[in-house]
Design a protein that fits this description.
The protein has no helices and eight strands. By secondary structure, the chain is mainly beta.
């Protein structure tokens, strides 16, 4: 079975464009790039985190994306839909980290961990 068959969802990824200047607070201003649509899998996992009072359980959300995707920590992810085209969430998806998932010796796919927990 192909990995792409395990990606039933779709999303639109918008990468930051070239830096065109800075705003009044010194932050970079990027030109807009056209978003591209890709297949993905939206995953929620229970993760145990230890804090000073003991153990707590949070929900970690992530996206699995094919290795052909061009990614950036500053990208925006929108229009996350299921196989029938219904939106899974209207919330903005913000990247926390991008992890390379490798096979024996080469890149297999990406796991994009999303910020926020429920």
């Amino acid at each position: 079975m192909s990995f792409k068959n395990l990606l039933p969802h779709t999303c639109e990824i918008t990468l930051p464009g070239e830096i065109t200047g800075t705003d009044e607070w010194g932050r970079s201003i990027h030109e807009s790039k056209k978003p591209y649509k890709t297949s993905c899998r939206y995953v929620t996992e229970k993760a145990k985190r230890r804090n000073t009072e003991g153990e707590s359980i949070v929900i970690q959300t992530s996206l699995l994306l094919p290795k052909e995707c061009e990614l950036s920590p500053e990208m925006s992810i929108d229009n996350l839909c299921d196989a029938e085209g219904y939106k899974i969430t209207d919330e903005p998806l913000v990247v926390d980290s991008i992890k390379r998932q490798t096979g024996a010796k080469k890149l297999h796919h990406y796991k994009v961990v999303l910020k926020g927990a429920e």
